[in-house]
From TrEMBL:
Protein's name in the database: Cation diffusion facilitator family transporter
Alphabetically ordered keywords of this record: Membrane, Transmembrane, Transmembrane helix, Transport
Pfam families: Cation_efflux, ZT_dimer
Membrane topology of this protein: Multi-pass membrane protein
NCBIfam families registered for this protein in UniProt: CDF
Transmembrane domains' residue ranges: 9-30, 42-62, 74-98, 110-130, 150-171, 177-195
MF terms in GO: cadmium ion transmembrane transporter activity; ferrous iron transmembrane transporter activity; zinc efflux antiporter activity
Chief subcellular location: membrane
Length: 336
């Protein structure tokens, strides 16, 4: 998996370098600030792809004494670097656009420039879409971030061509700087999105998608002996996941039976979630006076109260650090 990530990033670096040369040549022959905008973003593509290559290599390294959870979080850092570079490029583009408004200059060979930018846009779009698709299948935020950036670059190139076409046919040179500033704002927004997502991952912010996927798998594999699951936390380390949860089991299970049930929960998650998954399960005994009301164990020999409700497992109640009888008490109070 990691060798495939590295191969894809290497292709991204090589292609980004070629397109960088093409775009700066296009700016050289036209003198258009709008085309310079596209070329500047390509510099970000190259730098970001190089850092992404390093981050994919680093994230593949095994856990060690200094990094007990592995090196996967470097992928969030990589996405943050890419987002920061995009923001810097956007600020520089705005500066160049303002200079262009104050000191407008004649534009040349716009049809050739449009053709070169259009060619670059097609290549970026195809590569970006492929990287996003692979990033999702390989659970790699680095590939997704790189792919998203390239697709954004491609879309901006096509809109840029339309703007340059208007300038060419209308002769309104001032539009060059106005279009450049509009794209700079768009670029800044995308840079902010990547930085925001990077910070969220580095700060272990709750990921609704990852939690929802975990809850769905546990509900699909739910057994009657798994009386409840609570205090569940899902942390992501790049493409890898670390899951902690408390599993309530019948109090009369012996140690071997408890071990088997815990192992089954671990296997369910490890086999059905993407990437490398590490699961820590803490086993709790049931409390007959409280848990019997929602316990699903059939023909339980020690049941003290009849079952009155089946509690649905959700991201909300599984994250709480308490058994589900608290929820049942709240349900009864509301009913009264």
């Amino acid at each position: 998996m990691n060798s495939e990530k590295q191969r894809l990033i290497i292709w991204s670096v090589v292609i980004s370098l070629l397109l960088l040369v093409i775009k700066f040549y296009s700016f050289y022959i036209t003198g258009s600030n709008a085309i310079l905008t596209d070329a500047m973003e390509s510099i970000v593509n190259v730098v970001a792809s190089c850092f992404a290559l390093y981050s994919v290599y680093l994230s593949a390294l095994p856990k060690d004494s200094n990094h007990p959870y592995g090196h996967g979080k470097i992928e969030f850092f990589s996405a943050g670097i890419e987002g920061t570079l995009i923001i810097i490029a956007g600020i520089f583009i705005i500066y160049q656009a303002i200079v262009g408004l104050i000191f407008p200059k004649e534009l040349k060979d716009l049809p050739i420039g449009m053709g070169l930018v259009g060619f670059s846009g097609i290549i970026n779009g195809v590569l970006g879409f492929f990287l996003q698709k692979k990033g999702k299948s390989l659970n790699s935020i680095t590939l997704e971030a790189d792919g998203r950036h390239l697709v954004t670059d491609a879309l901006s190139s096509f809109v840029l061509i339309a703007g340059i076409g208007i300038i060419y046919f209308s002769g309104w040179i001032m539009l060059d700087s106005i279009i450049s500033m509009a794209f700079a704002v768009f670029i800044l927004f995308n840079g902010y999105y990547l930085v925001r997502r990077s910070v969220a991952g580095l700060m272990d912010e709750s990921n609704p998608k990852a939690i929802g996927q975990t809850v769905k798998i546990l509900n699909q594999s739910r057994k009657e002996n798994w009386i409840d699951i609570h205090n569940m936390r899902v942390q992501q380390y790049g493409g890898d996941s670390h899951i902690d949860l408390h599993l309530t089991l019948p109090y009369y299970f012996d140690l071997i039976r408890v071990h088997d049930e815990v192992h089954e929960v671990e296997e369910v998650l490890e086999q059905n979630l993407p990437g490398y998954v590490e699961v820590f399960v803490h086993a709790d005994p049931c409390l007959p006076d409280s848990c019997c009301h929602y316990c699903q164990v059939k023909d339980c020999a020690v049941r003290k109260h009849p079952r009155t409700k089946k509690i649905k497992w959700t991201a909300h109640n599984m994250a709480k650090n308490q058994k589900h009888y608290h929820e049942l008490s709240q349900f009864r109070s509301g009913k009264q």
